[in-house]
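Continuing the series of single-chain predictions for the mutant panel. This is the parent chain; the variants come on the following pages.
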Amino acid sequence: MRNKKNYLLKISLMALALSISATAFAGNRGNPLSDFGRALGLDEETADLIGKSARTIKSFQPIQYKEEKAIGGAVALKVFARYGGPYQDEKLSRYVSLVGKNVARVSGRPKIPYYFAILNSREPNAFAAPGGYIFVTLGLILKLNNEAQLAGVLGHEIAHVVKKHSLQAIEESRKKQGLFQGVDLITEEVLDKNPKIFSAFVDIATDALFTNGLDPSLEYEADRLGTNYAERLGYDPRGLKDFLALLSRHQSAGGVSVFSRTHPSARSRISGLERSVLPSFSGRGYLTVAHRFQLMMR
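Parent structure:
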C-alpha cells in the first residue's frame, strides 16, 4: 500500500511540474523525460506517456493577442457580410463607439484596442469577435430606451472579449476534435504558413456566433461582468436587465432571431442577474442618460 501511495505521489508531482514547465519539456524531442522519470523511480513507459502529455499541454497554450486579433478580423468580415455591412450614420456610430470605449476602459482588459460598429440590420443582435471587435445591429439599438441599456449591452459583449470566450470555444473544439495536435503553439507564423489552421479557427469562432452559440455559463458570466462594467461608470446597473426584458417581450410576440437561438432565454438571464449581481447595488444615484440617447437617435 505504501509503495502504491508513493507511486501516486510521484505521478502527482510530475503532473504539477508539467503544468508549470510544459513549454520547456515539450520543446524537446524523443523521450526527454526518461532520465527525469528514472530519477523518480518511474519506468520508461510511464515517463514516455508523461512526455506525450507535455506535448499535448503545450499544443493548447493560449492564443496570443496578435493571432487573436487576426482571427477576430476575419470573423468581423463575415459578420459584416452576413448583416448588411455597417450602418451609414457617422454621428450614431461615433456615439456608440464612445460609450463602448468608456465601458472597455473600466473592464478587466482595458489596454487592447476595441472597435465598435453598428450593423445595417433590423434584426436585434450583438456580437463580439476575438481581439476586441464589437457589433450591435441597428435593430437592437432601436429597441433601447436609454444609454444605460446601451452600456449594459456593450458591457456584455466587452466581457466576452475580456474573458476570451470565443477563444475558449476554439480551444474546446481543438481538444474534442483533436485538431492540429502536431502544432506546438499557434503563432502568427503558423497561421501564415498553414491557412487551414487559420480557416478552421475562424469557422469555429463564426459557428459560435451564428449557429452553436457559446456555453450558456459564459453568457451568464458576460451578463454579470457587463453589468458591473456599466455600474462602474455610474450607469444604472439594471440597464442590461431592462434591455433583456424588452427582448423577452419581443420573443414572446413571436420574434425569432439568431440572438434567441444562440443565447439562453432572456427570462433566465434576467433571473440570473437578479440573483447574482443586482442585489449588491443600492439602486440610488445611478444614471440612465435617456435624454442624450434620445437626441442621438433623432
